[in-house]
Amino acid sequence: xxxxxxxxxxxxxxxxxxxxxxxxxxxxxxxxxxxxxxxxxxxxxxxxxxxxxxxxxxxxxxxxxxxxxxxxxxxxxxxxxxxxxxxxxxxxxxxxxxxxxxxxxxxxxxxxxxxxxxxxxxxxxxxxxxxxxxxxxxxxxxxxxxxxxxxxxxxxxxxxx
Length: 161
Description:
This protein is mainly alpha-helical and about 160 residues long. It has helices spanning about 5-15, 15-45, 50-80, 90-110, 115-160. The chain contains five helices and no strands. The relative contact order is 0.12.
């Protein structure tokens, strides 16, 4: 199944939310690398818990931001706020990542040990990486679709002359 119909592709290309997603995705990934590094550093050395927590909170905030703006994007392009057929599995992966990331707040509220909270974040970050991979694959699929469409256009235009 093609990722986009021609009409959806045009809406995607003209949407300001496409640019927002294109900015937020690498920003979130950069924050993931920083935060993951600090979480692992804490787990190995026992140092830097406060800094690791600050980065976890920033990472969770960015995840919420990209999810909310992604839902607006999805509604604009596909007419669904969430779980559009074209992005169903990516949205399921995002929901799992959101759940695991937000378990951080429950763990803190329940008074889990510092180490347990950081181990939870390793699990949460693992779900993020799976979801990130899903979106990269979807992006590559969309790029291939765009290239195939562009390759057909000159041939179609030549035949119609």
